[in-house]
Amino acid sequence: MRKLLLCVVLLGICLIPLSVSGVSDKQETAVAQENGVEAANFASAPSYPAYISKITSMDGVTYLTVDYIQFLQGEEADRVFRQQEPDAGMDEAPDGYYILNEEKKTYTLPVAADAQVLMQIYNRSGSWDDADIVENEPISVAKLRSLFSGDNQELMGNFPYYVTVVDGKVVRIVQQFVP
């Protein structure tokens, strides 16, 4: 059963262009234009939620190591939460979402040099106490790489990200805010 499930998931990741972000073509283009980024057509490319475990560079290429997850919201999150956490003493997923990571397996993918990176919250000043939310703030791939170093690495790795891959390269990374 697990092998069948794994095959279905891998098939979905490789072949079925799904947009799990729930953002329409027009919304996505508007966000790109609003943030000063040339509007690429990401709507037809699959975007998947994942944890980023590390970001490395080799021979001038940046690589993202990800662990794909399921980021569930609403009624689906509540249902899965009750199944996975029967002794929690709660009927609903805290904060309206639940992250399911049944198979902890990482994949390392090259990042396009011009990849779009949109953040919601991160350590801008050197102190997480000063961190505030700026919706879809564009940053460079180099800045993201710097955030995954030192004291920030573990904290940044705890956020889910939506990763868009086109032609085998990561072209877009969007941090998912979680309360």
Kindly describe this structure.
The chain is an alpha+beta fold. The chain is built from five helices and eight strands. The protein has one domain (2-69, 104-175). The protein has helices spanning 2-15, 25-34, 74-84, 141-147, 152-157, and strands at residues 47-58, 61-68, 70-73, 97-100, 106-119, 137-139, 160-166, 169-175. Strands 1-2-5-8-7 form a five-stranded mixed β-barrel. It has a two-stranded antiparallel ribbon with strand order 3-4.
Quick recap:
This is DUF4309 domain-containing protein. By secondary structure, the chain is α+β, with helices and mostly antiparallel strands. It has helices at residues 2-15, 25-34, 74-84, 141-147, 152-157; strands at residues 47-58, 61-68, 70-73, 97-100, 106-119, 137-139, 160-166, 169-175.
Beta-strand proportion: 25-35%
Overall 3D form: globular
Q: Which whole number gives the mean pLDDT?
A: 80
Strand order of the largest sheet: 1-2-5-8-7
The structural class is alpha+beta
Largest sheet: 5 strands, mixed, barrel
What is the total number of structural domains? 1
